[in-house]
Amino acid sequence: METLIAEIVRKLHSLSEIKILKVLDFVDFVAWDKEYLTSRPLSNDLFQEDEEFEVIADRLADEFQMYVGATIPYLSDYSVSRAGIYEEHP
User: Fold this and answer.
1) Cβ contact 53:60 at 8 Å
2) Would you give the DSSP letter of residue 74?
3) What is the Cα–Cα distance from 7 to 24, expressed in whole angstroms?
4) Residues 51 and 77 grouped into a single domain
5) What is the largest CA-CA distance in the chain?
6) Angstrom distance (rounded) from CA 53 to CA 39
7) Helices (H), strands (E): how many in the chain?
8) CB 23 within 8 A of CB 15
9) Are 12 and 20 in contact (CB under 8 A)?
10) Number of domains in the chain
11) Same domain flag for 63 and 23
12) Which residues, 6 or more positions from 20, have their beta carbon under 8 angstroms from its beta carbon?
């Protein structure tokens, strides 16, 4: 087994970075453990994804505000209400 691993490592040294990343993706796929994925609690993962999304959304909002400046036009309550949305516009 050690000889086989040494041969794989030797051949990996001759590959470009892009091909090595493809090999890594393949190894991750082959080593994928369905039981591990199903045994993890989903609620924790979803909570973590929500936190990550909030961090990214806050960062994007901050960058947008830096780009646009402090003069962001706000919509009135009426314009976002049902009556305002369905109002006839010329």
Assistant:
1) no
2) P
3) 16
4) yes
5) 78
6) 24
7) 5, 0
8) yes
9) yes
10) 2
11) no
12) 12
Encoding tokens for residue 26? Answer: 């393949």
Note the pLDDT tens digit of each residue in 10-63. Answer: 999 999 989 888 888 888 888 877 666 666 665 566 666 778 888 888 898 888
Kindly calculate the radius of gyration of the chain based on its CA atoms and give it in whole angstroms. 26
Q: Residue 59 corresponds to which amino acid?
A: R
Q: Identify the DSSP state of 12.
A: H
Q: Based on the fold, state whether residues 28 and 2 are members of the same structural domain.
A: yes
Structural domain that includes position 48: 41-90
> What average pLDDT does this structure show over 66-90?
78
Reference 24, options 8, 35, 40, 36; nearest CA is 8
From the list 39, 38, 44, 15, the residue with the least C-alpha distance to 27 is 15
Tell me the two tokens of residue 79: 């314009």
